[in-house]
Design brief:
With about 150 residues, this protein is mostly helical. The chain has helices spanning about 10-15, 15-25, 25-30, 60-70, 85-90, 100-115, 120-125, 130-145; strands at about 35-40, 55. The chain has one domain (about 10-30, about 60-145).
Length: about 150
C-alpha cells in the first residue's frame, strides 16, 4: 500500500509507537549486519547467455522494504524531482533530527523507488549508513514527544 501525497502526514502521525516497533526492531539488526547485499550475474548462464550484473539484497534489507510497505510508509509523490530529498541523502553530515518523520518517510520512499531504476541503490543506502541514520532519527523523535508533539502515545 502507498500513502497519498494529500494525507500522508496525517496518516503517519496517527501511527502508534506499537505500529512503529517492527521498523525500530530492525535498528540493532542493521547495526550488527556484516553485509547488506551481494552481486549476482555478470557471467554466462548454462545456455551461454551473458547475465547482466544485479544486486541481491540481504534479508534485513528485504525485511525493511516489507515493513515499509506493510505499515505503510511509502508516499506517492514526484520523488525524482525532489531536490530537497536528494540534498539530504547526499549530505553525510545532514541532521535528520531537523526534519519531521513524514519527511523522513518521503526520503525512504525515494530511496526504495530509486532502487527500481538504479539496481543496488537501496543496498548502497544501507552500506553508507543513510537508512540507519533515518531510522535512529525516527526512533529519537518517537521517544521525545517534544520533538513530535502530534504523535499519539
Amino acid at each position: 500500500m502507498v500513502l497519498s501525497e494529500k494525507n500522508y502526514r496525517q496518516k503517519i502521525y496517527a501511527y502508534t509507537r506499537e505500529q512503529w516497533q517492527p521498523l525500530m526492531d530492525l535498528i540493532p539488526e542493521i547495526e550488527e549486519a556484516l553485509s547488506f547485499g551481494e552481486k549476482g550475474g555478470g557471467q554466462k548462464d548454462p545456455d551461454g547467455e551473458m547475465q547482466m550484473p544485479y544486486t541481491i539484497p540481504a534479508y534485513v534489507v528485504t525485511q525493511f522494504v516489507d515493513i515499509v510497505y506493510e505499515m505503510p510508509l511509502m508516499v506517492s509523490f514526484d520523488w525524482p524531482a525532489w531536490e530537497e530529498g536528494r540534498k539530504m541523502a547526499n549530505d553525510p553530515d545532514f541532521d535528520f533530527d531537523s526534519v519531521d518523520i513524514p519527511t523522513k518517510c518521503k526520503l525512504i520512499t525515494a530511496v526504495i523507488r530509486n532502487d527500481r531504476f538504479a539496481d543496488g541503490a537501496l543496498v548502497r543506502a544501507f552500506e553508507s549508513g543513510l537508512i540507519l541514520k533515518i531510522l535512529k532519527s525516527i526512533h529519537r523523535q518517537l521517544e521525545n514527544p517534544l520533538t513530535n508533539s502530534t504523535l499519539p502515545t
